[in-house]
Amino acid sequence: MSSLEGKVALVTGGNSGIGLATARAFHANGARVVLSGRDRETLNEISRQLGQRVLAVPTDVTKLDEIDRLMARAYETFGKLDILFVNAGIFKGASLEEVDEAAFDEMLNVNLKGAYFTVQKALPFLNEPASIIFNGSVNALTGIVDSSLYTANKGAIHALSRALAAELIGRGIRVNTITIGPTATRLLTRSGSSQALLDAQDRARINHSPLKRLGLPEEVARVALFLASDDSSFVVGSEIAADGGWLLNTI
Ligand SMILES: NC(=O)c1ccc[n+]([C@@H]2O[C@H](COP(=O)([O-])OP(=O)(O)OC[C@H]3O[C@@H](n4cnc5c(N)ncnc54)[C@H](OP(=O)(O)O)[C@@H]3O)[C@@H](O)[C@H]2O)c1
């Protein structure tokens, strides 16, 4: 795997789960890393752990002025951006009837509006060449009950990624998506569901998976590392699955 020595990587949602594992992997491979997320305590703790070559900027991706500040701080500190991991996201399982306007707006604001404007506002600072990696989901490519809102969000991310791959490659910016399968993070536990429901859902996910387990954030991070590095220099507009075979029809 190529080193990320000399590169600057920005990870939204870099203080938890897949974003954190990826920020650690980028950093371990020599990158200077900009971490963002809302929770200041975890951001500070992770910066302390990583030590050198790190900038943590508390940012709510639903607030465009905060994204502006994030990009400005990253540029002031490190002078450029080579890698953008568009990762911050939320999930709440609910049937079609259960989703109200507030829940719709909340999820769309983080998962789509936040992702869209993160890329738009990073653009002036992105180097040539650069790599943008979106966090997609198996939800975007299949039908899973009680997840219509999340599925619509992630479907939009996959579509956005393809459109931007075409639009930005002329500027030397490669855009790709990781199609992530069920991974052991706080995403689902933060959703507000009861522990009993979460356990039942985990059992169903594990049962469906050909590997019979959830993914680890580090397993997704290794795919992000590939897409971030020059090893993927010919990979543009792709959707690479890190899903343990979730999308296979194993019957
Ligand atoms: N885990 C899975 O099974 C799975 C499967 C497919 C796709 N994904 C995608 O992977 C991404 C990361 O999720 P994860 O599983 O690692 O979950 P996680 O551990 O809950 O991490 C989510 C991250 O997003 C950040 N975030 C949430 N709302 C934000 C906001 N308004 N502004 C800025 N940051 C915000 C969180 O930080 P703060 O709370 O500090 O803001 C946190 O760092 C998401 O896009 C998710 O949809 C996950």
Automatic annotation (TrEMBL):
Transmembrane annotation, as ranges: none
MF annotations from Gene Ontology: oxidoreductase activity
The family this protein is said to belong to: Belongs to the short-chain dehydrogenases/reductases (SDR) family.
Cited PANTHER family: 5-KETO-D-GLUCONATE 5-REDUCTASE, ALCOHOL DEHYDROGENASE, PUTATIVE (AFU_ORTHOLOGUE AFUA_3G03445)-RELATED
Annotated CDD domains: SDR_c
Pfam families xrefs: adh_short_C2 (PF13561)
Keyword Nucleus: no
InterPro entries associated with the record: NAD(P)-bd_dom_sf, SDR_fam
Record-linked Gene3D superfamilies: NAD(P)-binding Rossmann-like Domain
Source organism, top-level taxon: Bacteria
Protein name: Short-chain dehydrogenase
Keyword entries, A-Z: Oxidoreductase
Naturally occurring in which organism (per UniProt): Dictyobacter arantiisoli
